[in-house]
Amino acid sequence: MTASNHLKSISTSDAPLSRGTDYERLADRFRPIFARIADGALERERSRSLPYEPIEWLRNAGFGAVRVPVEYGGAGASVPQLIQLLIELAEADSNLPQALRGHFAFVEDRLNADPGAARDVWFKRFVAGELVGNAWTEVGGVAIGDVITRVSRSGDGWVVNGSKYYSTGSIFADWIDVFARDENGRDVIAAVRTNQPGVKRSDDWDGFGQRTTGSGTTVFTAARVEEEDIIDFSTRFKYQTALYQLVLLSVLVGTGRAALRDFAREVRTRKRIYSHGNAPSFAQDPQVQQVVGEAAARVFAAEAAAVRASHASQRAYEARFGGDAQAEHQANVEAELDSAFGQVAIADLVLRATTDLFNALGASAASESKALDRHWRNARTAASHNPLIFKSRIIGDWKINGTEPPYVWQIGAGPANLTDKTPVAA
């Protein structure tokens, strides 16, 4: 297996970039699909049905290739335009952007790869509708900083062995982006095809929100991987954690928009009133209007923050090909920090909005048939990824001490988790 060098600066003349397109024209391609997705979202929530068909609609419409440069058959969308699209999709069904989170991160990595045949093959796959899932996190006794999943030689090829959890979207995907370690102790990404006996995917995510993202366990048993699809992790695009977080921010904002839509409809059509209310209908009650208005303002601010935060990642992407290492480094710092600012602010705004909206209705808002609680549950679940308290500290450390944020972080067992002197699995 050949080792890749660290990313080097490349002139923009050597690499057609996705700098953006006409957003309304782009979004109009997908809005009829978003509407169809929204029509079935409530029933999928009630029955906990995975959105296989909606994923196919998006796949066939080229949604997975919106970031691919126009020169290669994609839409050439910028990162902010991708986030706007994902917000619209999340309003239809907040599970879908999260299910595609790993895909868009892998697309972004290939956008940042050195120009050449290997990168072009992936562009063709994306344009053909092929989707990539995610399998990075390990649970159980794995120590923080360690990786149990292995890539090793088998005969004249390579195989992957290991088990991953939180493998969001992989159950819908043609490929899985697997974080693993090779025989030399080097961290790698293995892009593994899913249509083989060595890949077993399970929908065993038991969260109370975001229940149909396909986030479950994936087991690799001598799963074949081609040598050209084993990528040195040190070459991974540097603003990756920022992009992963931006997708979650789009989930939160879209969830807030969906909550506003549903609660406003319930208020508008409600017939019963309270004797100590302020109007002959809930729709005309000024206190109810205030509740909805304040929630709407919070969602508006959340959306503005998400789009604002995404511009830094676009700058980092373009700086990758600008030939100025210092400018690229600064752009990556800003991308990480801006996504953290957005995370801390947006989570608070959307969680408050999806909670306070219940004040605009009576006890009927708790009806399971309406499932209005799904908006809070979905927001709470999305906001629980990448703990907010640590991001707040990182921001404060930067503001006070100028300490750079971490660009990659891991989770695993630490000394405080050990009992009876049981060793952590190596």
Automatic annotation (TrEMBL):
Domain Acyl-CoA dehydrogenase C-terminal: 250-386
Name of a matching Pfam family: Acyl-CoA_dh_M
InterPro entries: Acyl-CoA_DH_C, Acyl-CoA_Oxase/DH_mid-dom, Acyl-CoA_Oxase/DH_mid-dom_sf, AcylCo_DH-like_C, AcylCoA_DH/ox_N, AcylCoA_DH/ox_N_sf, AcylCoA_DH/oxidase_NM_dom_sf
Enzyme class: oxidoreductase
Domain called Acyl-CoA oxidase/dehydrogenase middle: residue spans: 141-221
One example of a Gene Ontology biological process annotation: L-leucine catabolic process
GO cellular component term of the entry, any: cytoplasm
Pathways involved: Sulfur metabolism; dibenzothiophene degradation
EC numbers, comma separated: 1.14.14.21
Chief location of this protein within or outside the cell: cytoplasm
Keywords (A to Z) from UniProt: Flavoprotein, FMN, Monooxygenase, Nucleotide-binding, Oxidoreductase
Compartment(s) of residence: Cytoplasm
All copies of domain Acyl-CoA dehydrogenase/oxidase N-terminal, residue ranges: 36-104
GO MF annotation list: 3-methylbutanoyl-CoA dehydrogenase activity; flavin adenine dinucleotide binding; monooxygenase activity
Protein family per UniProt: Belongs to the DszC flavin monooxygenase family.
PANTHER family from the UniProt entry: ACYL-COA DEHYDROGENASE, ISOVALERYL-COA DEHYDROGENASE, MITOCHONDRIAL-RELATED
Name assigned to this protein: Dibenzothiophene monooxygenase
